[in-house]
Amino acid sequence: MALNLLNLSILFVLLNIINPFPFAEPRTLEASTTPFSKTLQNLRGVHRGQNAKGVGELRGYLQKYGYLTKGSSSNDNFDENVESALKHYQAFHHLRDTGVVDDDTIKKMSLPRCGMPDIITNPNPNPNGLVGAPENYTFFPGSPKWSKFFLTYRRTSGATVSINETAVRRAMRDAFQSWANVSPFTFNETTDRSADITYGFHRGLHLDLYPFDGPGRVLAHAFAPEDGRIHFDADELWRSNGSDIDFQTVGLHELGHSLGLGHSNDTDAVMQPNYDGQRRSLSQDDIDGIQALYGQN
Ligand SMILES: [Zn+2]
Ligand SMILES: [Zn+2]
């Protein structure tokens, strides 16, 4: 029993070490019928100095995605920290940085998206995504990267999903190939449990600190090198033909995280955080990012 408890605490510590990202709260967002969208609608026009129901939820959203580190998410006071964080969010997403919840901000925050934060609070050797910064790729804190160029990957079994197995494997094979084409990496599929990168579908709570949230909202997340885990939310309406949530689009994005890229504020990049339709080709910004980390192929 003592040993089990010890193992559990070691696991917990390890999870905290390898997941140093502020996206722990399963905060949710989705199209117009959801509570968060309604919250945003109710906050339209609210600004600094006001106290309004729902500001705490907005604060939680901004914390989850790396725009805000201070304050309690139960605090409904729209203070200068919330205003500043909202301006950062708006600047990253190329909206007018008014610091007010306006229509464009509501629309953007209502898109399904990746569960990883946009702005990582630690100093970054390539500190993009800040107000006034040029459009560009980012890395994780400390720029973690793979120490080898020959990587294996494995499909893990998991929850049943709305897309068939052949389509899943083909989409991921194509996604791996897209990154291999512009980098020194070679990827080979394996069934070996020692695979470097693993991917699979999970529902709700699933053995990490970041439970999924049902259809819409957060679609997937992945861990920085050399962790290798990629998790997709099993509750999405995954498709292989570009409709609903295009699996290959999200796979290509999450694989970028597995290789060491953070979110980009280039609206053309595969590594931008929101899902706004099929996007299966890497942009110049994605290519510049992976080559800055590993060199050319
Ligand atoms: Zn992402
Ligand atoms: Zn996960």
Bound molecules: zinc ion
Q: What structural class do the secondary elements suggest?
A: alpha/beta
- What percentage of residues falls in helices of 4 or more residues? 25-40%
Fourth-level CATH superfamily of the largest domain: Collagenase (Catalytic Domain)
Rounded to the nearest angstrom, the radius of gyration is: 19 Å
How many helices in DSSP terms?
8
Overall body shape: globular
- Strand tally is 7
Q: State the name of the first-level CATH class of the largest domain.
A: Alpha Beta
The share of residues in extended strands comes to: 5-15%
Domain tally: 2
User: How many strands, which pairing sense, and closed or not: the largest β-sheet?
Assistant: 5 strands, mixed
Q: Can you give a write-up of this model?
A:
One of its GO terms (molecular function) is metalloendopeptidase activity. Keywords: Calcium, Hydrolase, Metal-binding, Metalloprotease, Protease, Signal, Zinc, Zymogen. It is an enzyme of class 3 (hydrolase). It comes from Glycine soja (Wild soybean). It is a single chain. The chain is α/β, with parallel strands linked by helices and 297 residues long. The chain folds into 2 domains: 35-109, Muramoyl-pentapeptide Carboxypeptidase, domain 1 (Orthogonal Bundle); 150-294, Collagenase (Catalytic Domain), CATH 3.40.390. Helix content is 32%, strand content 9%. It has 8 helices and 7 strands. A 5-stranded mixed sheet has the order 2-1-3-5-4, with helices on one face. A two-stranded parallel sheet has the order 6-7. α3 (55-64) packs across α4 (80-92) and α6 (165-181) packs across α7 (247-259). It is globular, with a radius of gyration of 19 Å. The protein starts with a helix and ends with a helix. Mean pLDDT is 85; it is low at 1-33 and 121-133. Residues 114, 116, 253, 257, 263, 273 line the site of one zinc ion.
